[in-house]
Amino acid sequence: MKLNSLFIIAIILSSCYQNKKTTTETIEIANKNHIINTAFQSIIDSAQVTGAILIYDVQKDIYHSNDFDWADIGRLPASTFKIANSIIALESGVIENNSIVFKWDGQERALKNWEQDLVLRDAFQFSCVPCYQEVARNIGAKRMNEYLSKLDYGNMKVDSSNIDVFWLRGTSRISQFQQIDFLKRFYESELPISERTRTMMKKLLRIKQHKNYVLNGKTGWAIREGENNGWFVGYLEKEKQVYYFATNIAPTAQFDMAYFPMVRKKITLEAFKKLKIIE
Q1: Nearest to 217 by CA among 124, 130, 140, 132
Q2: What angle is formed at CA 240 by the lines to CA 231 and CA 218, rounded to 5 degrees?
Q3: Among 63, 116, 188, 205, which is most exposed with the fewest C-beta within 10 angstroms?
């Protein structure tokens, strides 16, 4: 699924860019800090998916996206909720530390890498649904709602009947803008959580240390009424700067679903390249 090269087209610049010219995409100013970038749409089209890539440059207070309407729609958080779930588990004491081991009960699971004992980091990175369902049940609906309110995380609908599935199906919703707002408050120590929890979560979120930047985040995948929806949310650190991102996509009829686990990260990083943030 190699992304096609983009044609060089006309440029519309804002004062936010101090009149510096670029030759790779057309940009349009939606409002004072929302820039519509057609290169992002080309990336999505070439990948044979629909959706939006949303990147927030906190240094310039600018959001880049191909579709701000899509980015503003609330959707099931799927496994991106493991970020909040982990925070709540650590804060409540349900998870004591990052050396906890989730024991496999020997039953067949949806993915082979779930069929083993998993430490917290592996359960997080492998998106072990049964592991985090256990965590949610131990937290309980009452405490879950209390912490979700404190964290101001999306619009989750939680009760005792759906405590272990509310992020996967039902009416819980979070938008791409809300995902970025939550991540920003986490990164900037604005969430009402301990520094210990924040430090442990930063280790869980670390995906890869590249030569010139560090990628942190979490993917998610929800299937609702037969419709697939995929997430990749997180933040990219480069030198002393940080960029937040939330990508949300759905496959087209032509898309090969075997590539769905990879495409969310691929198109997000391609968008960062178009912004010349990474190479």
Answers
A1: 124
A2: 15
A3: 188
175 catalytically annotated = no
In angstroms, how far is CA 87 from the centroid of its own chain?
15
Q: Retrieve residue 24's tokens.
A: 């790779």
pLDDT tens, residue by residue, 148-203: 999 999 999 999 999 999 999 999 999 999 999 999 999 999 999 999 999 999 99
